[in-house]
Design a protein that fits this description.
The chain has 96 residues and is mainly alpha-helical. The protein has helices at 6-16, 25-43, 51-65, 71-95. It has one domain (6-95).
């Protein structure tokens, strides 16, 4: 997955200000994607929100939107995040 989606990982890292020279930067990006997945579940009403989760979601969205000039840029990054967490789950199921 890291090899197949290297461009997506790099684009997210650049957008979030995470240097791709840092140790385990791919893991940081993947964890961010999984946090976003939790937020999406709350927004889609498939999971009940609480104060901590609401704050976490606002932080995740703020990080995605920081420095963007249009909503289209934000949506593009959200789509990349969704692609990564979906592929992670598919890969995890195959390996398990």
């Amino acid at each position: 997955m890291l090899q197949d989606r290297q461009n997506e990982f790099r684009e997210l890292a650049k957008s979030l200000g995470i240097p791709n020279t840092a140790d385990d930067w791919e893991v940081i990006i993947l964890k961010f994607c999984l946090d976003f997945e939790d937020c999406f579940k709350i927004w889609a009403d498939s999971e009940e929100p609480n104060t901590i989760k609401n704050t976490k979601c606002m932080t995740v969205m703020r990080e995605i939107a920081k420095g963007k000039k249009s909503f289209t840029e934000v949506i593009n990054l959200e789509n990349i995040v969704q692609t990564l967490y979906t592929e992670f789950h598919q890969t995890y199921k195959r390996v398990s």
